[in-house]
Every structure is written in C-alpha cells, then in structure tokens.
Amino acid sequence: MSSPSLSDLGKREQAALDERGTQQRRACSNATWNSIHNGVIAVFQRKGLPDHELYNLNEGVRQLLKTELGSFFTEYLQNQLLTKGMVILRDKIRFYEGQKLLDTLAETWDFFFSDVLPMLQAIFYPVQGKEPSVRQLALLHFRNIITLNIKLEDALSRSRARVPPSIIQMLLILQGVHESKGVTEDYLKLESLIQKVVSPYLGTYGLYSSDGPFTHSSCILGEYNCSLICLKKDQVISFQICNRFLQSGRSEE
Q1: 206-209 sheet: strands from edge to edge
Q2: Which residues pair with 154 in a beta bridge?
Q3: What are the pLDDT tens digits along the chain (253 aa)?
Q4: Whole-prediction pTM value?
Q5: Could you give the CA distance from residue 212 to residue 235 in angstroms, rounded to a whole number?
Q6: In the chain, how many H helices and how many E strands?
Q7: Is 239 helix (H, G, I), strand (E, B) or coil?
Q8: How many of the other CB atoms lie within 10 Å of CB of 226?
Q9: DSSP letters along 174-236, please?
Q10: What backbone torsions phi and psi does residue 235 show, to the nearest 5 degrees?
C-alpha cells in the first residue's frame, strides 16, 4: 500500500481544522442560546437582570442571527422562551377561581405588560422590524397560554364579580393583536370574553350588548356628526362618537 501523498495529508489536516472550527462555533452558539434562555426566564421569574447583562444579551442575539441558527430564531423564541415563560406566570394562578382569579390575573397582567414585555423588546431589540414582532408574539402567547387557559369566563360571569380595570385593559389590548392567518378560533374566544366586560361591543360578527346581539347595525357619517345607530326590537339607540366632523371653515354657514 502506497503512503499518502503530501497533498492528501494537507487536505486531511485542513478538514480536521474545519471540523474543529465548526464544533467551536456550535459550542459558542449553544452557550449564547443558554445565556439568552436564562436571562429571559429570569425576567419571567421576577429576578431581573444583572448590571450590563442586557447589553450582553443584545450582542448574543446579534451573533446568533449571523449563524445558521438564526433562521430558527422565531421558532426557538416561541417554542422555548415564550412558552416556558408564560407557563411560569400561569402556574401561579391557574387553580384560582372567581374573584381571586380576577385579582391575581390583573396583577399578573400588570407585571407582564409593565415589566416583562418591555424587557423582552429590549433583549431582542436586534430583531426589531421583523414580522411577527417580539411584542406580537409575546401578546399572542399570553392570550393563548394564560387568558384562554384559566377559568376566566366563569369568573367574569359571576353576578357579583368585580372586574379590575387591568382585566379590561388586557382584553382590549389582546384584541388588537392579530395573526397572519386571520380570525382564529382563539381570537373568537377572546371576543366572547370581551363581551362580558364591554357593552356594547363591536366584534367580528356584529354588535353585542349585555342583552345579546343586535339585529342590525350601521354607521352614519355626516359633516357635523358621526353616530352609531343600532337597531334592536324596534328600539333605536344612538351612541354619539363625535360632535363635529369638520373643525373649521363652517362658522360662516
């Protein structure tokens, strides 16, 4: 058997160097993923971030986006970070019912909306401009994992329920978040919850009041007034939206 040529030895050595380089890059990427994972979960656990950690996480996100793992970023964010984080928040309230559920959900929403959501947007600032946005993904996960997976409908339906303002804020903000595939079953479930705290409410399939759906609705636009006219059982209910359509140029008429 002939001995390998110098050319073959050189190719093998280069291949070994390339393999070691690939392994080192993967190890570095895995360490960066772990750092981002730990930082995000700490935010959900109310632990906060150490000094300068936000900058380090920003740099980590930038590095990952430049690697082959960057194409899986959105999937990882949804399936690992956001899902785990929302489960952490939900598990603290999932067994509550009635007024206790409403009060603790309101506190959970306040924490998420005021602390967690801004921090998530800060951590993943390097991906700003991509769709769906981090804000959109986070709100959708809050809706699907928390709002729609607790006994909220029952709590809102109780006769003496005291609905905290934060609950109404939560439902209306979540209502404004849409998925690319359009109206989904989860979105319609959310609308059914909104109908219990906002009346009248204009949903996907019509106008609803605390007494049930209206049979017909129309909007009349005029130069001076814009009113919503709702017809139900021979009754006409007018909700004044604005007093003047034009703000200038009519005083002489």
Answers
A1: 201-203, 206-209, 212-213
A2: none
A3: 555 565 665 656 655 555 554 455 555 678 888 999 999 999 999 998 988 999 999 999 998 888 877 778 888 899 889 999 999 999 999 999 999 999 999 999 999 999 999 999 999 999 888 889 999 999 999 999 999 999 999 999 999 999 999 999 999 999 999 998 889 999 999 999 999 999 898 988 888 876 655 544 433 333 333 334 343 433 333 333 333 333 444 444 4
A4: 0.75
A5: 14
A6: 10, 6
A7: strand
A8: 15
A9: HHT---TT-S-HHHHHHHHHHTTTSSSEEETTEEEETTEE-SEEEEEE-SS-EEEEEEETTEE
A10: -110, 145
State the Cα–Cα distance between residues 118 and 43, nearest whole angstrom: 11
d(CA 184, CA 190): 10
Rounded CA separation 65/88 (Å): 27
Residues 6+ apart with CB under 8 A from 209: 199, 200, 201, 232
DSSP secondary structure, 118-137, as one string: HHHHHHTGGGTT-SS-HHHH
